[in-house]
Amino acid sequence: MADGDIVMEGRHQRRLSLVTGSIPPQPPDAVQSAVLCRNLSYVLHEASTSPNVSRFARTILQQFVRARRAARALAGERDEDLLPRIVLRDERAVWAFQRASTTHVLTYAIGATSLLPRVLHLIRPRSAPPITLWWLDRPHDRCPVRIPLFRGTATLSLPPTEGMPQWFAILVFRPGWRSVLLDLVELVGDDALLSLTSTLERTLRDYTDQWWCWRPWWDRPAELVLPELRESL
């Protein structure tokens, strides 16, 4: 098997259980701008009112339009045509995922999130149990979980299962918008929550311009929490 090839046990129609839908709709512009800038203030480590954060927020809105168009185009591809457009960030993780009997995969709204269910469906063996995709950034009936993230405290949601889900996945567009990168991570170690935190911070840094963060992750902007940013006000 060549580097980057996808392993697929034939075509099958086993359905994935989805907790929520695809890319969330955009909220009104005023709410959107405030939420985007608050979230970005932590990842960019700048005040939410800074010109750089405002510019980045506008970039995300522009990227979202491109992403929605690109996702529709890829969604129309046949499975055999879509597979060569999927690049793996970590082949070993994908192989382990194919062997695992996991039933829950964590994700959040980023990149080609509407295509993620289909891609995970394609790479799973026919005998594997159905997968429940759980979006960490969507509101759920269960109590929210507060997670240390970028030296602040983010409020996200974890599924009501026993133990921490062992897998995390996102799908982002590669340059040109005609192919996607599958970033699949096994959450291992003594502290799975710590592993999730580090994975979230890495993916948010790596793919910030494809982060559809319409919902607030933090209660307050970074400049009201981080001492070094408070001093710059």
Could you explain the architecture of this structure?
By secondary structure, the protein is α/β, with parallel strands linked by helices. The protein has one domain. The protein has 7 helices and 8 strands, in the order E-H-H-H-E-H-E-H-E-E-E-E-E-H-H. The strands form 2 sheets. It has a 6-stranded mixed sheet. A two-stranded antiparallel ribbon has the order 5-6. Helix 5 (116-123) links the parallel strand 3 and strand 4. Helix 1 crosses helix 2. The longest helix has 25 residues, at 51-75. Residues 1-21 have low confidence and may be disordered.
Summarize the topology.
Layout: E1 17-18, H1 29-43, H2 51-75, H3 79-82, E2 86-88, H4 91-99, E3 104-107, H5 116-123, E4 132-135, E5 145-149, E6 152-156, E7 167-173, E8 180-186, H6 192-206, H7 227-230
Parallel strand pairs: 1-4, 2-8, 3-4, 3-7
Antiparallel strand pairs: 5-6, 7-8
Helix pairs in contact: 1-2
